User: What shape does this take?
Amino acid sequence: MTSRDDSEYRIAHLRDVLAREEMAELGVRIEMRGGAVLLAGTVATATRREEILRLAEAELRGLPVLADLAVASTDPADRSEELP
Assistant: This one.
């Protein structure tokens, strides 16, 4: 069992890791929700999403982690948009 202060410290550290130049994922919110940690936002690629989840698992070991991370679609549109 981890203390609330310890959990907050670990969450802050994960935020710092995600903000570093190599990662630069500033669009991911990390917050306590009840007894779990919620990661929410949009990331550029599925690979980046997996990297973030691995980092969260390592940094937040012992805490339940919920992920609501969407992958931004960078694929070109498959048809043109029709405007009224």
The helical segments are 4-19, 46-59.
